[in-house]
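Hi,

Apologies if this is the wrong queue. I'm a grad student, and the batch job for Cytochrome P450 from Hevea brasiliensis produced an output file that my downstream script rejects. I'm not sure whether the problem is my script or the file. Here is the sequence I used:
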Amino acid sequence: MDDAIAARKENPSDDLLSRFMKKRDVDGNLFPISVLQRIALNFVLAGRDTSSVALSWFFWLVMNNPEVEAKIVKEISTVLEETRGNDHQKWLEEPLDFDEADKLVYLKAALAETLRLYPSVPQDFKYVVADDVLPDGTFVPAGSTVTYSIYSDLSGEGLGLPANEIGGCSCAITLPIISGSRPPCAAEDVSYVVHEEWASCILATSHAGIGRVSARALVGGFTGCKGNI
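Support response: The file is valid. Your script probably expects a header line. Output copied below for reference.
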């Protein structure tokens, strides 16, 4: 990991590690190597399967909601035309940067709604290290296990996709309080960017060429996009 960090210092990239190396903490300081190591390990261990599950559900929902697909593609096209011009080939040369991702409000709302309907980790548990009391006053003794359903907490009926189409919305999902705290902002931001990059790459590729290829044609695998994970 030290070699990877040193290599990116010499040759800056746009992958996740490089992006975290540019982030600063609340005091304005760059993250130390020890923190970068833990962040990278967390993404390798926890981000792989959850990202693939989230994107699988996202494309399944998009495939079954063509009107939503059209709105997402229109938003992606508008943003990329503003930042990269009308040459569609340039749209796919480099992954999204943070400024471009911030403008994809509708796409982020669709991804957030996907995670609400089909959370990548539908159920989780916590092991009680010491006697504690939950926010509702329930006593939990040391050595016990508390299981909670994220799916049950987030799911609802009749909200559609996406739930919030208001431009500028944060689109953040409220996590159960028992999980301890919300994820660090940097990790949440980069996680959304990763999902937006893959979704944009696949949808832009399918729509930017000659003729129109629906998301339905992408089911079964797509290998034309380079990942930044």
